[in-house]
Design goal:
The complex is a heterotrimer of chains A (630), B (189) and C (101). Chain B has 189 residues and is mainly alpha-helical. Chain B has helices spanning 3-24, 28-48, 52-77, 92-114, 134-144, 147-168, 177-188. Chain B has 7 helices and no strands. In chain B, helix 1 packs antiparallel against helix 2 (28-48) and helix 2 (28-48) packs antiparallel against helix 3. The radius of gyration of chain B is 22 Å and the shape is globular. Chain C is an all-alpha fold. In chain C, 77% of the residues lie in helices and 0% in strands. Chain C has 3 helices and no strands. In chain C, helix 1 runs antiparallel to helix 2 (29-54) and helix 2 (29-54) runs antiparallel to helix 3 (58-88). The chains are: A mainly alpha (630), B mainly alpha (189), C mainly alpha (101). At the B-C interface, helix 1, helix 2, helix 3, helix 4 and helix 5 of B face helix 1, helix 2 and helix 3 of C.
């Protein structure tokens, strides 16, 4: 099975090709009809089964030999620059593969119901399958160039899917924004890859992390790690390249769940964990990871509290959670980052898809001020959302508790008390911001007029599975003293966790985080669900603070002033140059050409052999020139 | 004088001679036959150069299949009559020969500058590179290093086959028997 | 192997030049096509000779590919000649002057 791992990405690629290119009588994008969705889901599901089989094979090997590289074929071979298409199966990549195919298959299944009435049903699933293919290439790649291929591929699919409803101007501009913003990071990342090649002479993970790492100087490692980090920041929507993620919510909700919550945006975390050798070599880069993660987590948590759009609130929450993952990776607590990544994929997909249920029944209404009290009409969805939200808030024994508690607890060592305090504040804010949409949407009094009804069974089934995973995932993966099953499984790749000198006992730390989470949920209930606080009047009473939160500290406006307006002014200046100077010259040349072309036909007699003679004359003259010069 | 030198000095004049003869033949069938001779001599060079697989392919595919296809088309079209000697393009022949000689001289000068006329190939080609037989050694390179291009050529062949079917099928109108006969008469005239 | 490699390459260069002249002076499309085949073969010969010199089979592989491509090219080219002949009842390239400026 380890050698057949290439089948896993191939299946969704085949699905994408079938859905895009299969000829048929019906109009494009709907050729297979309803079968398109089932085909796509089945292929990703089959990929999950294969991934499980691979996992079983991998577990059959001794822990220190759990890395298997399948060399498929030469990709680029120019001089000493050799890149193979090779797939690496090790605990880290198989964990990501299981998340991508598992959560991916569930979201595909959900989308069959959600996208039911869309005229481009088949195209949607083709893009979704293509995304899964590129994501799998990203996580299974055995060298940086193949990883980059997947990296850009998921960016492309993200663009296509954010702009899937491109008839809406907001969707198409959000897609462009996502593409351009992540491109900034990607360009830096490509430079980082080039630097790796220049310094080490190979892009294979085995070489780079083995022989290569020992040859790197500290400065080179810092440069490489920071450039790679820039790519990770762009893809994972961390400060300062986060502005695209809230806008990306213009895409269909299954896309938000799969790409902008569960998988693609966590690729940055994967990249950092995969390249941890380079980051550790640098040291500085690791500190940058820590600071970026912590600041992003706090920033996004505050911004989420200011949102009234359900999906944007969840988007900022995703950014905040990924901030926690970066924070963990920055402390060299990679297993913690990966545990949060996996658990976050479960409960954030659950939250987004439940939000999809709400949007679906309310005719794409996303403003939480016009929701409220939906619990009565949608009891199941309310239960799913509650499970997801409480998990994110860190209420035991749900998945989020284990993941986040470990990370916050890990920070509580003598040399970084400030980070621990800030992370605890972040955890408290997380509980607050995620309880808020729960209470605003499902509790309190009804503020909208639309009639709501529960989503069909086809859409509820994947939610039930995700809810189950959210309940037991943390217990299964994260419990026990050595950091849990996942941590021990990942150890051969990322090394053993080094705990610092703790300032408080484990029991005290756990108590603090539970108290914080419960307090935050209680406060949220009092403010947004009890009816005793007039939260709707808050923006009028505190326009300053509400404005800062709702607009995420005006970073978008700042970017507009820094980049957009100067860009437009520069563009206008260029227009003048273009009209007068360049067009003037071009028009003049064009007129000359028209004059000259009156002469040309006399040379063109139409005899092929004359042309061939002229051709040969050129060849002889060129050879003569080269010969005389040499 | 080693065997390969004798072979070279026997076949090189035949090779050049048959090529020039092809050029001078006014009859297309004769030209094709001289080209076959030339292809055979090239096949012999392949053998001397240690490419025994290409030797076989050259004879079977080139001198065999491709040239038969040429002769078939010559016969099919009935153009095996002699070409007119009148040259309508002024200076074409002279310039062609001058420039042809020019490119030959330039290439030979380049060869002299590049590898020189004394460089000899390493002697142990058959023991090292061709170990286990030329076909086997070639297969190792072809199916490992050049596997993907090899598969692409199969696509190329399919595309070519489809293209020929499309080109050769008579879409506009079927040529009637009478037209074909009158065309034949015009040819004969 | 006592023949210098350059001799083979020189033969190849001469054959190439002869093929070039053939393309330029002949009027029958079929003979022109044969001349092009001669040029292709000349290049193949050079490839095989250099392959022998460097002790690397890549040259032979490229010659092999060029034969495959030549086979594809011959069938398409001949089909084009047949089609042209069917329309114009002539295989002389001097009758094809629609590209006249």
């Amino acid at each position: 099975m380890l050698d057949l791992v290439w089948l896993i990405p191939l299946l969704p690629l085949a699905g994408a090709a079938l859905n895009l290119f299969l000829p048929g009588p019906a109009r494009p994008g709907r050729r297979l009809g309803k079968a398109a969705g089932w085909l796509a889901t089945a292929l990703v599901g089959l990929g999950f089964v294969l991934a499980v089989a691979t996992l079983v094979d991998l577990l059959g090997l001794p822990a220190d030999q759990r890395a298997h590289v399948t060399d498929l074929f030469d990709w680029i071979s120019v001089g000493t620059f050799n890149v193979d298409v090779a797939l690496r199966v090790d605990p880290l990549s198989i964990t990501m593969t299981l998340v991508v195919t598992g959560v991916g298959a569930l979201i595909h299944l959900y989308a069959i119901g959600y996208m039911d009435h869309d005229p481009r049903f088949g195209t949607f699933f083709a893009y979704l399958n293509l995304f899964v293919f590129f994501m799998l290439m990203l996580v299974l790649a055995d060298n940086y160039l193949l990883l980059y291929l997947g990296w850009e591929g998921v960016g492309l699919c993200s663009y296509l899917l954010i702009g899937f409803w491109f008839e809406r101007p907001s969707a198409s501009s959000a897609a462009k924004k996502a593409f351009v913003t992540t491109r900034i990071g990607d360009a830096a990342m490509l430079l980082g890859i080039v630097l790796i090649w220049l310094h080490i002479g190979s892009l294979d993970f085995g070489v780079v992390f083995g022989r290569g790492a020992s040859e790197l100087t500290k400065g080179a490692a810092t440069a490489i790690a920071l450039l790679l980090l820039a790519g990770a920041i762009g893809k994972s929507a961390q400060l300062p390249l986060h502005v695209w993620l809230p806008d990306a919510m213009e895409g269909p909700t299954p896309v938000s769940a799969l790409i902008h919550a569960a998988t693609m945006v966590t690729a940055g975390v994967y990249l950092v964990v995969r390249s941890h050798v380079l980051f550790e070599l640098s040291g500085t880069a690791l500190t940058v990871v820590l600071v970026v993660g912590l600041v992003s987590a706090l920033y996004a948590a505050l911004a989420s509290i200011g949102q009234f759009d359900l999906k944007r609130a969840l988007a900022y929450s995703t950014m905040s959670q990924i901030g926690f993952m970066f924070f963990a990776a920055g402390m060299r607590f990679y297993t913690g980052a990966m545990l949060l990544l996996v658990c976050h994929a479960f409960y954030k997909a659950l939250l987004f898809l439940t939000a999809g249920n709400v949007l679906h029944t309310l005719d794409d209404e996303t403003d939480m001020r016009r929701m409220g009290g939906l619990r009565a009409d949608m009891p199941l969805s309310a239960a799913w959302f509650a499970i997801g939200a409480l998990s994110l808030a860190g209420i035991p024994p749900l998945a989020g508790f284990f993941a986040k508690d470990q990370i916050v607890g890990f920070a509580a060592t003598s040399d970084r008390e400030l980070a621990w305090v800030l992370a605890s504040v972040g955890a408290f804010l997380s509980a607050l911001y995620i309880a808020r949409p729960l209470f605003l949407t499902f509790f309190g009094r009804r503020r909208g007029e639309e009639h709501a009804h529960e989503a069909p069974a086809l859409m509820q089934a994947p939610l039930a599975v995700l809810a189950f995973l959210t309940v037991v995932g943390g217990l299964f993966l994260g419990l026990t003293a050595q950091g849990g099953r996942l941590a021990r499984f990942l150890e051969p790749v990322v090394g053993a966790v080094e705990h610092g000198e703790a300032v408080l006992s484990d029991a005290a730390l756990i108590s603090i985080s539970i108290v914080l989470a419960v307090a935050a949920v209680a406060i949220a209930f009092w403010v947004w669900a009890s009816g005793r606080v007039d939260w709707e009047a808050f923006p009028e009473r505190q326009p300053e603070l509400a404005g800062w939160l709702a607009n995420a500290f005006y970073l978008n406006t700042l970017y507009a002033w820094l980049v957009q307006h100067p860009g437009k002014a520069f563009g206008r200046a260029l227009t003048v140059v273009d009209d007068r100077v360049i067009d003037g010259a071009v028009n003049e040349v064009a007129e000359d050409v028209v004059d000259a072309s009156g002469v040309a036909p006399r040379i063109q007699r139409g005899f092929v052999r004359s042309y061939a003679l002229a051709f040969l004359f050129g060849a002889v003259a060129l050879l003569l020139f080269l010969g005389l010069r040499a | 004088m080693a065997v390969d030198e004798i072979v070279f000095w026997v076949f090189a004049p035949i090779s050049i001679g048959s090529a020039i003869a092809m050029l001078l033949q006014r009859n297309a069938v004769h030209a094709a036959l001289f080209l076959v001779v030339n292809f055979f001599t090239i096949a012999v060079f392949y053998l001397v150069l240690g490419a025994s697989f290409l030797f076989a392919v050259q004879i079977i595919v080139y001198a065999g299949a491709i040239m038969v296809l040429f002769l078939f088309v010559i016969m099919l079209l009935g153009v095996d009559r002699e070409e007119t000697l009148v040259e309508r393009l002024r200076g074409q022949r002279v310039m062609a020969v001058v420039l042809g000689a020019g490119i030959a001289i330039e290439l030979i000068v380049a060869i002299r500058a590049g590898i020189g006329f004394a460089t000899k190939a390493p002697a142990n080609f058959d023991e090292t590179v061709n170990r286990g037989g030329n076909a086997q050694a070639l297969a190792r390179v072809l199916f490992r290093q050049y596997f993907f291009p090899f598969e692409v050529t199969s696509v190329l062949l399919i595309v070519a086959a489809i293209a020929v079917v499309v080109l050769a099928s008579r879409q506009r109108r079927a040529v009637t028997r009478a037209e074909a006969v009158s065309a034949g008469h015009r040819e004969a005239a | 192997m006592s023949t210098p490699i350059a001799y083979f390459v020189a033969v190849s260069a001469m054959l190439f030049a002869i093929g070039t002249v053939g393309v330029l002076v002949r009027k029958n499309a079929l003979v022109i096509f044969m001349s092009i085949e001669l040029q292709l073969n000349a290049v193949n010969l050079a490839l095989v000779a250099f392959s022998r010199m460097h002790g690397n089979l890549s040259g032979q592989v490229v010659a092999f590919f060029s034969m495959v491509v030549a086979a594809a090219e011959v069938v398409v080219g001949l089909a084009i000649i047949v089609t042209v002949y069917r329309r114009r009842q002539s295989a002389s390239v001097d009758d094809l002057t629609v590209l006249r400026g």
